[in-house]
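[Discussion] Sanity-checking designs against the backbone

I'm trying to build intuition for which residues belong where. Below is a structure token string of 90 positions. I'd appreciate it if someone posts a full sequence so I can compare it with mine line by line.
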């Protein structure tokens, strides 16, 4: 197994989810954390979120409006990030 990679998305959701899908091509465990904001809707974002789900990538959020994502508060996310080999932010 490769590395554990966390993608932390705050501002650029389109690019963050696109890159998350791309990271699944390596032999790495990828998890995505959508911080603070509601998931935007758009053709690319919708497709990439669906693809991540199909690939069993875990999706987390600290915003309860993102009901498709596993909920974690900011403190829990901060503690979880310490367990990753790499954290990529968008």
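Best answer:
Here's mine. Compare freely.
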């Amino acid at each position: 197994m490769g590395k554990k990679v966390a993608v932390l998305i705050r501002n650029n959701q389109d690019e963050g989810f696109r890159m998350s899908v791309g990271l699944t091509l390596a032999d790495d465990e990828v998890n995505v954390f959508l911080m603070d904001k509601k998931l935007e809707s758009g053709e690319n974002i919708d497709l990439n979120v669906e693809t991540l789900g199909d690939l069993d990538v875990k999706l987390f959020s600290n915003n309860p409006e993102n009901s498709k994502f596993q909920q974690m508060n900011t403190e829990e996310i901060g503690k979880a990030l310490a367990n990753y080999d790499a954290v990529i932010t968008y």
